[in-house]
Amino acid sequence: MAKMSLEDLRKLRDAKKGDIARREAEGKDIQVIVGMGTCGIAAGAKVTLDSFVNALDENKLADQVVVRQTGCMGLCHSEPTVEVICPGMPNVIYGNVDAAVAKDIVKKHIVAHELLDQHILNRPAADIMA
What we know:
By secondary structure, the protein is of the alpha+beta class. The protein is about 40% helix and about 15% strand. The protein contains 4 helices and 5 strands, in the order αβααβββαβ. A 5-stranded mixed β-sheet has the order 2-1-3-4-5, covered by helices on one side. Strand 3 (about 80-85) and strand 4 form a beta hairpin. Helix 3 (about 45-60) packs across helix 4 (about 100-110).
């Protein structure tokens, strides 16, 4: 392995600090939870997760949204699956979330507060929502 310069080490440190800050949930009201069970990973959930991270960075939302991973959500037929928890909106599980849909979820659900009806697998009934 080649030696790293002091500047290279500083860049690496800053990149890792950003990765750690992105995982911090303190003070973040919005959550994106990506199903990363075996079925999800086989269906492309890693690409979906990366797309969420990139879209949040592009929209300058990384400090407001925590992106987390979970195991199988039991919806293997619709993987990759993603749950979005956003204040003022119902908790929603989206299915068949590829990279393009992930970007749409950021733009429409998180930014514009609009649901992507064609990808919704589950959401609470209005009469049981608080």
